[in-house]
Amino acid sequence: MIGTGRSSRAWFEEYRRKRKKADEDDRVIGAEDGPKQGRARSRSFWSLLAAFWRLADAARPIFTFALATRTLGTLIALLPPVLLKALFDSVLGTDPLPAWMPLPHDRVALLWCVAVGLALLPFTATIVGLWGRWKLTKATRIMHAAVRRRVFEHASRLPLHRVQRLKSGGVTALLREDAGTVSDLTFNLFYNPWGAIVQLTGTLIILAVVDWRMLAGGLLVLPIVWVTHRAWIARIRPVQRDIKAVKQTTDAHATEAFAGMRVVRAFSRETGEALRFTRRNHFAARQEILAWWWSRGIEAAWDFLIPVATACVVLYGGYAVLGERLRTGDLVMFVAYVTMLLGPIAMLTTSATSVQTQLAALDRVLDLLAEKPEFADERSERTVDRSSVAGRITVEHVWFAYPRGAGAKGESAEERWVLEDVSLDVPPGSVVALVGPSGAGKTTLCNLIARFYDPQRGRVLLDGIDLRTIEPASYRRLLGIVEQDVFLFDGTVAENIAYARRGTTRGQIVEAARLAHAHEFVERLERGYDTVIGERGVRLSGGQKQRIAIARAVLADPVVLILDEATSNLDAESEALIRESLATLMRGRTTFVIAHRLSTVRDADRIVVIDGGRIVEEGTHDTLLALGGRYAGFLARQLEHAPVSPPVADAGEIGAARADG
Ligand SMILES: Nc1ncnc2c1ncn2[C@@H]1O[C@H](COP(=O)(O)OP(=O)(O)O)[C@@H](O)[C@H]1O
Ligand SMILES: [Mg+2]
Questions:
Q1: What is the per-residue pLDDT across 93-109, written as a single tens digit (0 to 9) for each?
Q2: What is the spatial distance between Cα 402 and Cα 409, in angstroms, rounded to a whole number?
Q3: Which atom of ligand 1 is nearest to the CA of 161?
Q4: CA of 447 to the centre of ligand 1 (A)
Q5: Whose Cα sits closest to atom 17 in ligand 1?
Q6: How many CB atoms lie within 10 A of CB 520?
Q7: What are the structural domains, with CATH classification, of the chain?
Q8: What is the pLDDT of residues 13-36, one digit of tens each?
């Protein structure tokens, strides 16, 4: 996947070639192998605008208010050049004031009026503008939070295999940057351009009233501006989108490298990882410079256009004044208005730059929001609760393959079956042990029972009700899951245990911890149950984490309990200790237990041997032993390998078969 051999320059040159070709179909070229993310096609400007308007729902009245104040402020700001005309023609010159100007005719009084007007008008315009701006800023911040919340909620409801593919870095980048910048569109898409348009139109109208030929000149500039702008958008927007994509992968890989730093160190790959990171950053830098050239090029063109236009006005107007077809005041006013054309155009440029980035961000946010959440196609409306549920779990002829994208590519579902025609009926409160070699599909079966996925064929039922028809959240509240890899949040021990249930008391937490044999070691921690664990705090051993997870499950008081190698990180001694607690925990609950140690398995009501995604044997410890099949084979091998007699009676590892995984 990662060719560190290629320099960022070669990569970039290839990128530019691809970009040229891709311009026609507006593809994203992010990662090294281009079309990987190429499916995403950017939406048209208008559909983005409409989508933004929908996202902004609550803020719309404030938008309108802000645009109104902006209009008023801009119009007030348009008045000063008119005062200049009065100054030149009626104070300094001898012309009478035009009839439409409601100002005194006395020259000194008029001078004062002009001076006061010149001082007060911009100030008033600013106050009016600020008022609307403040309201809009508030609305924008609220929208900012709302969009981020929507993205967060949506991302957390996506099917598991999608969440895994989005990778931690990818989601955070989306949340941190994209979802955040979307709200800034209020300014760059509405507020600022609107002000610019009002100012532009106002200026052009005044120019037309005074001298229509001047307007014709002004209008000549506009198509040039429009054409350059279009060309620029076409170039810049795709590049900016690509930059985002590259940065996102770069960040995701960096996050990953740090998460896997032990592995990186173990294989002395620090230099390699750093090179990879640097190369990606260099590539992004080259892309950014490309984008920089495009935007600065256009700006330079405009910087040249505007002075030329001003010079033309001065020439034309100067001739007109000399030929006495125009007053001096009119010419001064003209030049003032022509420079006022500059402002809106500059504003449109800067807005347009940010708008491109932000529209690209909006596009990506919409891509995410358009993804179907988990079980969107199912009508999962029935709610279940503890009191009305017995806890019978039935698996009926289930066939399952992991969704595409999560596993190997290029094979059809049939070739990737992880479970094939699995059937199982587990009465309420009984314990089923799942046994089999690594990769057999034990965890997968539990994933279906927990409804992390739905099977492609067959059904999983709770008390005879298809899980598909049950509201997922209400079903999962009945579950308790302890896995081999325990995930603990940054927080205190107590918070981590209480994660299973809201509104628990310290007493309940301690009781649960006692049952899980976690209490002893938690007590010995520096701050007991208030010790912060996880990334920012104390590191716990694998066994300690598992005991916390077991305490969590105890507290959850589940109807259906899944113990997926829940004790694998415990040494035989601690396991013997908590075996009792687990026995208490399992009592009265439908339990699925996956364990490699015989001791955990032999007391189960039923033992199910799975291999290659199929159930190959089923029965109690004694019947299976008598059968002399796979289970008996496991046992024999285990006793053979039985290490220096563990303290647990006749125990060892069933999974000598584990060696292959
Ligand atoms: N999230 C996943 N995406 C794709 N394939 C998976 C995923 N999890 C497991 N598998 C595959 O499914 C098969 C069964 O895995 P699993 O149920 O974890 O086995 P077990 O728990 O019995 O060791 C394996 O071949 C594994 O590669
Ligand atoms: Mg497993």
A1: 888 877 777 888 888 88
A2: 11
A3: 1
A4: 10
A5: 441
A6: 11
A7: 18-370 (1.20.1560.10), 386-478+558-660 (3.40.50.300), 488-555 (no CATH)
A8: 888 888 877 665 555 554 433 333
